[in-house]
Every structure is written in structure tokens, then in C-alpha cells.
């Protein structure tokens, strides 16, 4: 009995071990099976996501053949625009227009207002800017974007307001007095500021930002023409001028409005933060400068003191004019006029000159031909005894500049390849 009991005990012990092992194996198998199913589900989801992603990429890229650029879900053509801004924008947009026969539809993000027709077709441009010019104003969208900075100036005006400003400015630009003012101010700035700054950089072997130097030059010049005030941006050591800094910040913040959803920048303006806060602060600086200049000029005109050389800047010209009701223009209108012409003359001239010198650096043979032409003009001057007062080769008369046909052609080609204002915004007016 005892032996049998021991056998039974031993058997019972073996049976219990086998059951535990079997249970452990079964548990491990179930765990592995569950894990396998889980991983299989993950793999299936991953495959589905990869398939969807590939489909979106292929579908978006196929749109390039029909629309010029890939059209991504929600983002539209914005990724391509960001890429284009990081490269040579002129070459990028020209290549797209060539492939699309001069016209294509740019589709921005679904949550933005970046939807427009881009065209360079001469027939379309003639229709927009000449034949049906009245049907294509700048429009409400553009005016709302830049109104804070430009007000009702010529860049932001339509219809009668635009026509009157353009007519008045055109008459003034062609006047002898205004041309003399422009010539004198440029002569003074180039010889007393630009050349000394460049000479100093050469003597000290200091690297300079030529685009910044040219921007300072044109800013001083256009302020003298528009306001009759010299801000001194191109003075020695290139100081930071508060008005110039405020104007630059305001321009930059205004441009940023065009690349973000309208609701976003309006929300930022409402809460006064981000770029809208910067814009508000910089416009305040611009307004304070313009207000002080206008007040000072009014006091000068009220004294009725006849100077030997009357002022002929734009501010003085418009102050002496009357509106359609026979009243003097408001300070706000005068401010808008001057700010718009500063924007017109500052960036356009400096950008054109920057591209010109950049192209000269890339084309040594063109630079040599320009120097040959200048030397030829100087040699003709030296042979003429009547021109002793222009013996300095750095000073050229208008008659001499007209003889520089090759230089004129190079400047024209620069503007053709890299226009200072490559984009002109228009809206269609429904009637």
C-alpha cells in the first residue's frame, strides 16, 4: 500500500508538471498569435498609408502637366512657390510660363486667398493694361492689403483718384525744375557719399553689401525728391535712420500679408501681435516723420519768403495745388502721395542697379565694352577745349550720356531679364 501510494503520488506530481508546461506553452502561443495579429494589422495600416501617400504624390505630380505645378491636397501649389522663392524666382516663373504657353492658374491653399491667373502673354497684357484697362482695377483685395501703409496713394488708387495723381505726377516729372532737382540730388549723393563709401571699402579691403549701399542711395534721393528732406542713410559709417528702418519694416510686414490667409493676418491685427504689431509700430514711425515734414513745409510756405531757389519737390508741388472743390489737400492725402512715391523710387532703382552689377560680374566681356565706350566719350571730351569744366572723368553731361548706346542697351536688357516690378496685380471688375 505504501509503495502504491508513493507511485500514485509520483504520478500525480508528474501529471501536474505536464499540465503546467502545457498551459505555459499554450499561453505563449496565444501571446505570439495575438502579437502576430497586432503586427499584421499594423503592417496592413502602414501599407494602406503608404499606398495613399503614393497615390497623392503621383496624382499631384500628374497635375503638373496640366496646370504647370503640382497641386497638393489642402496646400495647393504653395509648396512649389516656397521652393521657387528659395531659388531664382525669375527663372522659375519664366520656365513655368513657357511650358504653359504664357498663362497658368495658380491655386493656393484651400484656406487662403492665393488663387490667381498668372500671364505673360503680350496679347493678354495689352488687353489688361490698355484695351480694357478700366475693367481691371487693383481691386478691393489688393487695396485692403496695403491700405495701412499706402493709404489712397497712386499705388493703391483706382479710377479718378489714380488718374488725377498720375496726371499731376507726370506733368511734374517732365518739368525742367523737377529734372534739375533730380540731377542735382543724384550728383550730390554720388560724389559726396557713394564714391567715398566705396573708396573707403576698397582702401580698407572691407566686404560691403552693394545692394544695401544702393538701397541707401536711392532712399536718400527719393526722399529729397518727394519730401525735400535728406534722411542721410548713405552718410559715413552707414547709420541706421529711424524713418528708413520704419519704412523697411512696414514694407516687409505688408508683403507678408499676401502669403498668409486673410483671416490669419486680420486676427493678428485684431489682437495686435506678430507681424501686424510690427506693421502698426512701423507705420506709426512713418506717419510721425511725414507729419513733421508737412508741418514744417506749411510753416515755410506761410512765411511767403521768396527764396532764390524755390523748392520743387513733390510735397511742395501738391501743397500749392487745389482739389476739385478748390480746397487745399489734406495732410493725410499729402502723406499718402509722398509715401507712395518713396516706395516707387526706392526699391525699383536699387533693385535694377543691383541686378545690373550682378550681370556685369557674370559677363566680363560686357563690362569691357562698357568701359571702352566710356573711355571713348572721355577722349572726345578731352579733345574739345570748350569742355574744360568737365575735365573730371567722373562727371558726365546729359549729352555725353546719350552717346553711351551700349550702356543704355545693357541697362534695358537688365530690366527685361530682371524687371524691378515683375508682378502687377489686377482684379476683374464685374458689371
TrEMBL record:
This is Cytochrome P450. It holds the Pfam family p450. PANTHER family: CYTOCHROME P450 (PTHR24296). The chain crosses the membrane at residues 39-58. It comes from Trifolium subterraneum (Subterranean clover). Belongs to the cytochrome P450 family. GO terms for molecular function: heme binding; iron ion binding; monooxygenase activity; oxidoreductase activity, acting on paired donors, with incorporation or reduction of molecular oxygen. Gene3D superfamilies: Cytochrome P450.
Amino acid at each position: 500500500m505504501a509503495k502504491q501510494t508513493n507511485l500514485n503520488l509520483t504520478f500525480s506530481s508528474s501529471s501536474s508538471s505536464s499540465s503546467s508546461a502545457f498551459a505555459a506553452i499554450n499561453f505563449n502561443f496565444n501571446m505570439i498569435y495575438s502579437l502576430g495579429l497586432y503586427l499584421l494589422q499594423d503592417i496592413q495600416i502602414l501599407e494602406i498609408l503608404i499606398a495613399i501617400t503614393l497615390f497623392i504624390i503621383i496624382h499631384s505630380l500628374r497635375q503638373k502637366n496640366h496646370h504647370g505645378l503640382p497641386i497638393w491636397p489642402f496646400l495647393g501649389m504653395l509648396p512649389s512657390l516656397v521652393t521657387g522663392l528659395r531659388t531664382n524666382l525669375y527663372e522659375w516663373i519664366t520656365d513655368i510660363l513657357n511650358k504653359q504657353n504664357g498663362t497658368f492658374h495658380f491655386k493656393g491653399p484651400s484656406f487662403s486667398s492665393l488663387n490667381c491667373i498668372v500671364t505673360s502673354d503680350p496679347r493678354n497684357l495689352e488687353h489688361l493694361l490698355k484695351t480694357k484697362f478700366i475693367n481691371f482695377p487693383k481691386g478691393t483685395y489688393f487695396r485692403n492689403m496695403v491700405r495701412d501703409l499706402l493709404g489712397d496713394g497712386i499705388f493703391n488708387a483706382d479710377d479718378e483718384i489714380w488718374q488725377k495723381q498720375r496726371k499731376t505726377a507726370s506733368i511734374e516729372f517732365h518739368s525742367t525744375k523737377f529734372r534739375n532737382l533730380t540731377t542735382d540730388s543724384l550728383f550730390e549723393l554720388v560724389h559726396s557719399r557713394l564714391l567715398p563709401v566705396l573708396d573707403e571699402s576698397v582702401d580698407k579691403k572691407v566686404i560691403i553689401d552693394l545692394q544695401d549701399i544702393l538701397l541707401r542711395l536711392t532712399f536718400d534721393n527719393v526722399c529729397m525728391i518727394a519730401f525735400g528732406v535728406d534722411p542721410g542713410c548713405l552718410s559715413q559709417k552707414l547709420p541706421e535712420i529711424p524713418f528708413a528702418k520704419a519704412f523697411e519694416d512696414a514694407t516687409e510686414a505688408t508683403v507678408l500679408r499676401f502669403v498668409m490667409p486673410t483671416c490669419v493676418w486680420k486676427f493678428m491685427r485684431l489682437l495686435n501681435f506678430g507681424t501686424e504689431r510690427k506693421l502698426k509700430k512701423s507705420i506709426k514711425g512713418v506717419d510721425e516723420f511725414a507729419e513733421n515734414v508737412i508741418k514744417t513745409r506749411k510753416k515755410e510756405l506761410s512765411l511767403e519768403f521768396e527764396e532764390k531757389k524755390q523748392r520743387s519737390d513733390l510735397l511742395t508741388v501738391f501743397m500749392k495745388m487745389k482739389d476739385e472743390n478748390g480746397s487745399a489737400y489734406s495732410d493725410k492725402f499729402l502723406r499718402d502721395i509722398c509715401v507712395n512715391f518713396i516706395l516707387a523710387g526706392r526699391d525699383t532703382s536699387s533693385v535694377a542697379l543691383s541686378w545690373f552689377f550682378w550681370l556685369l560680374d557674370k559677363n566680363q566681356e560686357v563690362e569691357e565694352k562698357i568701359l571702352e565706350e566710356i573711355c571713348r566719350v572721355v577722349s572726345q571730351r578731352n579733345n574739345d577745349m570748350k569742355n574744360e569744366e568737365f575735365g573730371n572723368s567722373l562727371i558726365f553731361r546729359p549729352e555725353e550720356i546719350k552717346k553711351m548706346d551700349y550702356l543704355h542697351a545693357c541697362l534695358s536688357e537688365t530690366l527685361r531679364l530682371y524687371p524691378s516690378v515683375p508682378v502687377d496685380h489686377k482684379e476683374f471688375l464685374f458689371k
